[in-house]
Design a protein that fits this description.
With about 240 residues, the protein is α/β, with parallel strands linked by helices. It has helices spanning about 1-25, 30-35, 50-60, 60-70, 95-105, 115-125, 145-155, 170-185, 195-220, 225-235, and strands spanning about 40-45, 75-80, 85-95, 135-140, 160-165, 185-190. Strands 3-2-1-4-5-6 form a 6-stranded mixed sheet, sandwiched between helices. The radius of gyration is 17 Å and the shape is globular. The N and C termini lie far apart (about 55 Å). The relative contact order is 0.14.
């Protein structure tokens, strides 16, 4: 039994290493990444209960790139957490096929949320390169809300908008997610995992903002319900 667990552990580690190697392989389209007008961190909860939503996100993320293409392009960095303190980030990619290839290598595992590590990574990253916004997709929050909000406040001061999309109705998670969105000047929205179009529309809207700011989001809102929802959720000052 122990040997079997060891084998499964090594296989899991190999999968993650393959993910990171693939990220390095697809990233060297530096001209395309550098030319992208928007930079968006795409963060997802990959704990055990999230597999259906992970698969959903994998299927609809292409819309972010399609929306951003007409605005100036989009570079995306994927971050996920799962298991025991496993939190990983990809290199920046600039096309949906590359991101899909990365995401399909990952399976969800049991564990607690690691949102603080995600926010800390973004805080560190924005000091090294421009990050216009981040999207976080999850359903739970099992951490110190004050610690998360403190980092969110820093991100807001650095000009990084947070778009938090919650599946389900966990009230503690919702309260914290709403505050993170408020502190960053972003937006909070809930979505139904059984309705893929809802998440797809929200991701398109976040991509529009990352690539072209409020004006791009406003233009998209004239024809896109997801953009109207996001625009209505953002602070009036934006």
């Amino acid at each position: 039994m122990k040997d079997r667990k060891d084998i499964e552990k090594r296989q899991g580690e190999a999968t993650v290493e393959a993910f990171l190697a693939e990220a390095d392989a697809v990233a060297p389209s530096p001209k395309r990444v550098a030319a992208a007008k928007g930079r968006l961190v795409f963060a997802l909860d990959a704990t055990m209960s999230r597999q259906p939503t992970w698969d959903l996100a994998c299927g609809v993320q292409g819309g972010m790139f399609e929306t951003a293409a007409s605005i100036g392009g989009l570079a995306v960095q994927l971050i996920f957490f799962r298991g025991f303190r496993e939190c990983r980030a990809s290199r920046w990619v600039a096309d949906p096929t590359a991101l899909t290839d990365l995401m399909t290598r990952i399976s969800c595992r049991g564990g607690q949320t690691q949102i603080e590590r995600v926010l800390s990574h973004i805080r560190k990253g924005v000091r090294e390169t421009r990050i216009d916004a981040f999207v976080y997709v999850g359903d739970a929050m099992e951490e110190d809300a004050d610690a998360l909000c403190a980092i969110a406040g820093e991100l807001g001061a650095l000009g990084v908008k947070g778009f938090i999309f919650q599946e389900g109705g966990d009230p503690m998670a919702e309260a914290t997610f709403r505050e993170i969105a408020r502190l960053t000047g972003g937006a909070f929205e809930r979505f139904d995992g059984s309705a893929p179009d809802a998440l797809a529309a929200l991701l398109r809207a976040a991509a529009a903002y990352a690539s072209g700011g409020s004006r791009a989001l406003e233009r998209l809102a004239t024809k896109d319900a997801g953009a109207r929802r996001l625009l209505g959720s953002m602070r009036p000052s934006t």
